[in-house]
Design brief:
The protein starts with a strand and ends with a strand. It folds into 3 domains: 169 residues, NAD(P)-binding Rossmann-like Domain (Rossmann fold, 3-Layer(aba) Sandwich), CATH 3.40.50; 162 residues, Dihydrodipicolinate Reductase, domain 2, CATH 3.30.360; 86 residues, ACT domain (Alpha-Beta Plaits, 2-Layer Sandwich). A hairpin with a 3-residue loop joins strand 11 and strand 12. Strands 7, 8, 9, 10, 11, 12, 13, 14, 15, 16 and 17 form an 11-stranded mixed sheet that branches. A 6-stranded parallel sheet has the order 3-2-1-4-5-6, sandwiched between helices. The protein has 439 residues and is of the alpha/beta class. The longest helix is centred in the first third of the chain and has 17 residues.
């Protein structure tokens, strides 16, 4: 059978990994697919770098549109990133009847509905495939799991450590007692964090990823603009320490959960019981938990980034395309559900989310403070699970008060904390971190 001809847009870290993996494992891939997969054309502004990677194996150009215009190209791999030129090139490739493979979670989280709709209408309705295994959790095959492996299940929730940079920072803060700024500097020194790490540390990258997983888990549109996003920049070393003493670890989680009134879609630091496997995922590793009604709780763990782990996911998508015969509309839907069956379930505002909380406040070391605070919480119907009141250090007249609540509505907690912070005996703002049992 004729080899699948691939055009590659961008040959940086991931692109070079794709070329390496395809070249090294070509024999194995042919055994699995019955046909070869060849990168025959590469577009990159740095043509010298591209030529150094591919040698004479592929034509190298600086114009990505030359790849799209080539009638010999069956599949376009987009590894440019971002929302701008990448979106235009993906839509042009679809219009030209090319299948698309991308690692661009930001593009799909924001413009996914438009792109998947265009793909379904391409080739006069025969459609083309848009695959994106590499967009979420690097080498972990979580997209295929949601799209195919768990298709018999009614998914109840998905929760994942899906940003290696933030997980590395939190691991450093816990293991070495570092503050956030020191741990971030260490991450940048090792190449885990960019010079401008905003997308990672503010939770945006994780929100892009969990937005895609929510669409695949529940059959809803991609709705990044409705996700609640909170990063790790305000976490203190003391919160890491207190959580450990209470039997929890703090991780930045992306959470998508089906509840009676709609869908929760949120990213934020989260206390997780230490006994959960996902709480013990350290360094730059990723892990995703999925709860299905038939299968129960499942866990997927591995490298969330890097040249060859991400390339592994890109090549897996190419293999799926190579195996496909006939009408692309007969392939597994890109977002797992048939487009005509997409649900209008609402994304809930964070104020309506029900979870439990860790609350830390600096209080005056005087009688009656705990009673005042717990009284305010009780007025809002917030039940207390545990309390730690630290002894004041010698010579100090203030201390930390830590409260764990049972499940309650977030909006009620917000109202209670505004009253608590108004007390003269509460010194400064209350630190609030959500807690998930993931049972």
């Amino acid at each position: 059978m004729k080899a699948l001809k691939v055009g590659l847009l961008g040959i940086g870290t991931v692109g070079s990994g794709v070329f390496t993996v395809l070249t090294r494992n070509q024999e194995e891939i042919v055994r699995r697919t019955g046909r070869g997969i060849e990168i025959s054309m590469v577009a990159d502004l740095d043509t010298a770098r591209a030529s150094a990677v591919v040698g004479n194996a592929a034509a190298v150009v600086s114009d990505a549109r030359a790849v799209i215009a080539n009638p010999e190209i069956d599949v376009v791999i987009e590894l440019i990133g971002g929302y701008g030129i990448a979106k235009a090139l993906v839509l042009e490739a679809i219009a030209a009847g090319k299948h698309v493979v991308t690692a661009n979670k930001a593009l799909l989280a924001v413009h996914g509905d438009e792109i998947f709709s265009a793909a379904a209408k391409a080739r006069n309705g025969a459609g083309v495939m848009v695959l994106f295994e590499a967009a979420v959790a690097g080498g972990i095959p979580i997209i295929k799991t949601l799209r195919e492996g768990l298709t018999a299940n009614r998914i109840q929730w998905v929760a994942g450590i899906i940003n290696g940079t933030t997980n590395f920072i939190l691991s450093e803060m816990r293991d070495k007692g570092q503050d956030f700024a020191t741990a971030l500097k260490a991450a940048q020194g090792l190449g885990y964090a960019e010079t401008d790490p905003t997308f990672d540390i503010e939770g945006v990258d994780a929100a892009h990823k969990v937005t895609l997983m929510s669409a695949m888990a529940f059959g809803i549109p991609v709705q990044f603009d409705k996700a609640y996003v909170e990063g790790i920049t305000k976490l203190g070393a003391e919160d890491i320490k207190y959580a450990e003493q209470l039997g929890y670890r703090i991780k930045l989680l992306g959470i998508a959960k089906r509840v009676e009134s709609g869908i929760e879609l949120r990213v934020h630091p989260t206390l997780i019981p230490t006994k959960r496997l996902i709480a013990n995922v350290e360094g730059a590793m990723n892990a995703v938990m999925v709860q299905g009604d038939a299968v129960g709780t499942t866990l997927y763990y591995g490298k969330g980034a890097g040249s060859e782990p991400t390339a592994s996911a890109v090549v897996a998508d190419l293999v799926d395309i190579a195996r496909m015969t006939g009408n692309a509309s007969q392939a597994t839907p890109a977002l797992a559900f048939q487009p005509s069956s997409v649900s209008a379930l609402p994304i809930l505002p964070i104020e309506q989310v029900v979870t439990s909380f860790y609350l830390r406040m600096r209080v005056a070391d005087e009688a009656g403070v705990l009673a005042k605070v717990t009284g305010i919480l009780a007025e809002q119907g917030i039940s207390i699970d545990a309390v730690i009141q630290k002894e004041a250090k010698d010579g100090e007249n203030q201390t930390d008060l830590i409260i764990l609540t049972h499940d309650c509505v977030e909006g009620k907690v917000g109202m209670a904390l505004r009253q608590v912070e108004a007390l003269s005996s509460v010194l400064g703002s209350v630190v609030k971190i959500r807690k998930e049992e993931l049972a």
